[in-house]
Design brief:
Blueprint: E1 6-8, E2 14-22, H1 24-27, E3 37-38, H2 49-68, E4 77-81, H3 88-94, E5 101-104, H4 110-123, E6 129-136, H5 138-145, E7 161-162, E8 165-172, E9 181-188, H6 203-222, E10 231-234, H7 238-251, E11 260-262, H8 263-267, E12 277-278, H9 280-297, E13 302-306, E14 308-310, H10 314-318, E15 325-327, E16 329-335
Parallel strand pairs: 2-3, 4-5, 4-6, 7-12, 10-11, 10-13
Antiparallel strand pairs: 1-9, 2-8, 6-8, 9-16, 13-16, 14-15
Helix pairs in contact: 2-3, 6-7
Length: about 325
């Protein structure tokens, strides 16, 4: 334990392998050629949007096992989640594997939560190989949290676009390929931060305070400054949330605008109809195709990965509640051969 909310691991905890599945819109973005599986049919051959999201998770795990050359019997636990009520995308999507499952809900921070818990399990010696996974689907999220697609509502400038996709990872005690890899050096667990924002169409404003709190806590716990990291990637604040985050950090005496990146801004770069991408799947697919690629190539040596989540539900929103935020930090490092 380091400081109040952080852990630095005694062992090397590897991200042994990763796999991504996305929809057609994501494939048209700047990362299109990097994704493992692209499905042009947003229904994924299913009869409902929710069933489609379950298919995304199933496809991600199947691809992950192929790439890692592992059998599902080699996996000890699965840590996974989605945005839907009672995690129905996860429960129906992963039931066929018959593995011990921890269903997680951290809203759009779920990928960070899954990686944190998976890494803690590996470092403690409770498991050798764990799958960490998160997914989202634009249509299933709109149907649950906002308006069905048939409504055809206009979207405000500050709104984000839920990514249709899933990222799956093997978190392991070893890297058998003996190649340059990525390890999870440590984690900073976030806490709920609520600035009283009630606009569910401005997720960046809801989540930015939690990201600011997490980054400041990580720096204090580890006794480091901004130059400790080559980059800090938030999950899905978008352009609006990214500006708010920088302002909040400056107020705290942390000037790292040149270090702050956002997965939601990257996946739809050049998109003029939204502030950026969001959803559990946003940071999940960008981590694999963009951030880890830069770590493995040597462009980065150390990165702080900070997926962010807006902890609302249709019930809380309709009752006039604010939208609390949470963020989890994962310290990723390049590990030489």
């Amino acid at each position: 334990m380091v400081g109040k909310q952080s852990l630095l691991f005694e062992k090397d905890v590897y991200i042994r392998c990763s796999a991504t599945v996305v929809g057609n819109k994501e494939a048209k973005g700047p990362l299109g050629e990097e994704f493992d599986v692209i499905v042009k049919d947003d229904m994924f051959g299913a009869n409902s949007w929710e069933e489609a999201e379950s298919r995304i998770q199933e496809m991600a795990v199947d691809k992950l096992l192929i790439k890692s050359r592992l059998n599902i019997d080699d996996v000890d636990y699965i840590y996974a989640g989605d945005l839907l009520g009672q995690l129905i995308a996860t429960s129906f999507g992963l039931e066929k594997y018959g593995k011990p499952l921890f269903g997680l809900y951290g809203a759009c921070s779920t990928m960070g939560e899954a990686l944190c818990l998976a890494a803690m399990s590996i470092n403690a010696g409770y498991s050798d190989n764990v799958i960490a996974l998160a997914s989202s689907h634009f249509a299933s999220a709109e149907k649950q949290f906002r308006y069905p697609l048939e409504y055809g509502n206009q979207r405000p400038e500050a709104s984000t676009w839920t990514v249709t996709g899933s990222g799956a990872y093997i978190v392991s005690s070893e890297n058998p390929e003996s190649e340059t890899g990525v390890i999870i050096r440590g984690v900073t667990t976030g806490k709920i931060v609520d600035y009283g924002v009630k606009d569910s169409m401005n997720m960046g404003a809801c989540m930015a305070p939690a990201a600011a709190d997490l980054i400041e806590t990580n720096f204090k716990d580890l006794g480091v400054k901004g130059n400790y990291y080559d980059a800090i990637y938030t999950g899905d604040l978008g352009q609006v949330g990214n500006r708010i985050l920088n302002d909040l950090l400056v107020e705290r005496g942390i000037n790292i605008a040149d270090k702050l990146k956002d997965c939601g801004m990257i996946i739809y770069e050049g998109e003029t109809k939204c502030s950026g991408g969001s959803g559990c799947g946003c940071s999940a697919v960008v981590l694999s195709t963009y951030i880890m690629k830069k770590l493995k190539s040597g462009e980065y040596r150390r990165v702080l990965f900070v997926p962010t989540g807006a902890l609302l539900s249709t019930v809380s929103y309709n009752e006039g509640k604010s939208v609390p935020g949470i963020a989890h930090g994962v310290i990723l490092e390049r590990k030489e051969k």
